[in-house]
Design goal:
Layout: H1 3-15, H2 17-28, H3 39-53, H4 72-81, E1 84-90, E2 95-102, E3 107-110, H5 118-122, E4 124-128, E5 142-146, E6 152-154, E7 163-172, H6 177-180, E8 199-202, E9 210-212, E10 217-221, E11 225-229, E12 240-242, E13 248-258, H7 261-264, E14 270-277, H8 278-288, H9 296-312, E15 365-366, H10 368-371, E16 389-391, E17 394-399, E18 404-413, H11 449-454, E19 459-463, H12 475-484, E20 491-495, H13 498-501, H14 503-515, E21 525-533, E22 540-542, E23 545-547, E24 550-559, E25 562-571, E26 596-598, H15 601-608, E27 610-611, H16 614-619, E28 635-637
Antiparallel strand pairs: 1-2, 1-4, 2-3, 3-7, 4-5, 5-7, 6-7, 8-9, 8-12, 10-11, 11-14, 12-13, 13-14, 15-27, 16-17, 17-18, 18-21, 19-20, 21-24, 22-23, 24-25, 25-26, 26-28
Length: 645
């Protein structure tokens, strides 16, 4: 929080100390309705609240009690919560987490101190339904980007501290904007009274969605803010604050421990929280409306009119009608040793583009559309905007939409390369069981154990850069490289039969080392690029995760006549029809063959959106005279000998 905003908050806390103390005393005595000093506001609130909450029919309760809440309070709260999202800003310059919510079918709001400007908005990802269901199981989430080019308005942190930005492209998941609903902005004068309870839907500390209900007393207000006492944490900034009718009353802004010692004695902590009044935000937006160009003016006008329409309806004026997003059954559908990671990531050099003497190989470049999906690193990391995660002898970049690496790039020193079993394609070493999160990048940008546990019926945690590939050099380097391959950022959903079935894809590096006729000057060195291949026409989905139907691998080396390269694609789609079942004691699995294709590198580029560079394309041996020509040079591989080098 900036200094001016903090001073304003502290001044409000000091100025309202007597008012807040009186409110707490009245609430403690069961007289919270007497806390509101504005009798007109209190009367309007009571009339509207009773109208909204009254039961119909002969069993209606009459009298002056307002302590009962209809059971619909719970279902309405769940409905309102659909519009609330976890906000993560990671644009290479700043890392922030917070909460925010839809205020119209197109516009999303949070604090300015969470999303500072349009540049930060472009590096923001929203995750809706980041929550546990009634069984304690994570719901399928949906992620969106923001589109500040379509609409973006900001208010300084020491004023109204809001960032209102247009919802952008959906990155993953199934929920459409209409499924989210929205919480209507309004300047109605009867939405709150001093002494009432507030309800806050939030992502405190980046946790799954939480709600604070009851015992959250609105103790004071200013023209600009509301002060209330509730539980919030870092990450709660930008949360919606509601009354008991689930009408939006404030944008949560700030909170800190505070002690009213004159009333309660020493060492009695209270949490004094500040929210920006929604009526103040509404009036500010209305005043700025005419200054906006089209079509931004239309978007804001729709949001303000939505509030007016909601106010005129008979019922809670908070949401558009949502469509249900049901958690699908666990079916696919269309649409180690005790390794320990060296936490000093500064010693990782990553992929060496000059690894092969005389053959510079830059990292693949993402096309325009794909580049927007590269997950940036956290602010403070070197070259954070590039998204390159550097490990021992390999690098990768994450696709934040699919939450899987779009590619990995690995250096292999053939002189010390671990032995690979040519029958299975596996290194002759046992597989590790522990996988790690990389703290240099947001955990929302990659799949973790939550997914792999939920979908263990189908998938193993599959390496992209194989553990044997970068494991060379000194004993210390080899151990670090081995452990580095066990980061979730290097993990992809591979069918449990994939490792045993994709033998040519798994063993291609070794085959090239043995048969590729490497140039003496290259010292037996190879470079390998690999990653998933997505195809919207045929891919299956596991909850909100698109499962790659194929994986590519490109091996590049230097021969006596210059650069050489081979591209291979392996298909796991037909494996996905089989779920893993418990059969008691482990049994040998029947052999299953998957299709391996020798594919032109240009074809891999077209399928992935990656550009491997002219050096790699021109080195492709698939068009050599000795190669068989089949269709568009897509050749089914049934043995290593068919991979002409």
């Amino acid at each position: 929080m900036d200094a001016d905003a903090l001073k304003a908050f502290q001044a409000d806390v000091a100025r309202t100390a007597d008012e807040r103390r009186k409110t707490r005393q009245l609430v403690a005595a069961g007289r919270w309705r007497d806390a509101e000093p504005d009798t007109g506001r209190a009367r309007s609130y009571a009339v509207r609240h009773r109208s909204l909450m009254a039961a119909a029919g002969a069993e209606s309760i009459t009298g002056n009690t307002e302590d009962f809440l209809r059971v619909a309070f719970l279902s309405r709260g769940a409905t309102v919560g659909r519009a609330v999202a976890y906000v993560e800003v990671s644009d290479g310059q700043k890392s922030e987490i917070g909460t925010g919510f839809m205020v119209s079918p197109r516009l999303f709001i949070t604090n300015r101190h969470v999303i500072a400007d349009a540049a930060a908005a472009r590096g923001t990802q929203l995750t809706f339904f980041r929550e546990l269901d009634e069984r304690g199981v994570p719901r399928p989430s949906t992620t969106y980007l923001l589109d500040p080019d379509a609409f973006a308005l900001f208010s300084p942190e020491d004023q109204l501290d809001y960032a209102l930005v247009a919802l952008g492209q959906r990155q993953s998941g199934l929920a459409e904007p209409a499924d989210l609903g929205f919480c209507a902005l309004s300047d109605q004068p009867d939405k709150h009274v001093i002494g009432m309870s507030t309800n806050i839907v939030q992502h405190p500390s980046g946790w799954p969605k939480m709600i604070s209900v009851r015992n959250n007393i609105l103790t004071a207000r200013t023209d600009r803010t509301l002060l209330y006492e509730t539980d919030t944490e870092q990450g709660s900034s930008g949360s919606p604050v509601f009354n008991d009718d689930w009408q939006l009353v404030a944008l949560h802004h700030w909170g800190e421990p505070f002690t009213d010692r004159s009333t309660f004695g020493d060492q009695v902590p209270r949490n004094v929280n500040e929210g920006i009044r929604i009526s103040a935000i509404y009036r500010d937006l209305a005043a700025r409306l005419d200054s906006l160009p089209e079509p931004a003016r239309t978007l804001l006008q729709q949001a303000l009119q939505a509030a007016g329409a909601a106010a005129a309806q008979d019922g809670p004026p908070t949401l558009s009608p949502p469509r249900p997003v049901l958690s699908p059954a666990r079916t696919l559908r269309r649409g180690a040793e005790a390794v320990q990671v060296d936490q000093d990531y500064a010693n990782r050099q990553g992929f060496d583009t000059a690894f092969i003497d005389g053959l510079p190989l830059p990292l693949p470049q993402a096309g325009e559309a794909l580049a927007r999906r590269i997950a940036p690193l956290r602010a403070g990391e070197a070259d954070a905007a590039s998204g390159e995660l550097k490990y021992e002898h390999f690098s990768l970049k994450l696709d934040k939409g699919h939450r899987i690496a779009m590619f990995t790039a690995t250096n292999i020193d053939g002189r010390t390369y671990l032995e690979v079993d040519r029958q299975t394609g596996q290194a002759n070493a046992s597989e590790g069981e522990v996988w790690f999160k990389d703290p240099r990048v947001s955990a929302s940008f990659f799949l973790d154990q939550t997914f792999y546990s939920a979908w263990s019926t189908y998938f193993d945690r599959g390496h992209l850069t194989r553990r044997s590939d970068p494991t060379w050099g000194t004993a210390e380097e080899a151990a670090r490289a081995n452990a580095d391959t066990f980061h979730f950022s290097n993990c992809s959903p591979q069918h449990f039969r994939f490792n045993e079935s994709a033998v040519y894809w798994q063993g291609l590096e070794r085959y090239v080392l043995e048969n590729g006729v490497l140039d003496t000057a290259s010292k037996g060195r190879l470079c390998v690029f690999q990653g998933p291949v997505f195809d919207d026409r045929i891919d299956l989905w596991a909850d909100d995760v698109q499962i790659p139907s194929s994986f590519f691998k490109i091996v590049v080396w230097k021969g006596p006549a210059g650069a050489r390269a081979v591209g291979l694609v392996v298909d796991q789609l037909k494996l996905l029809a089989e779920a893993r079942h418990s059969l008691g004691a482990p049994q040998p699995l029947a052999s299953v063959q998957v299709n391996h294709w020798r594919v032109p590198i240009e074809k891999i580029e077209a399928q992935t959106g990656l550009d491997f560079g002219e050096t790699v394309r021109s080195a492709d041996t698939i068009r050599d005279a000795a190669q068989p020509h089949v269709g568009e040079a897509r050749l089914l591989i049934t043995g290593f000998e068919a991979i002409r080098l």
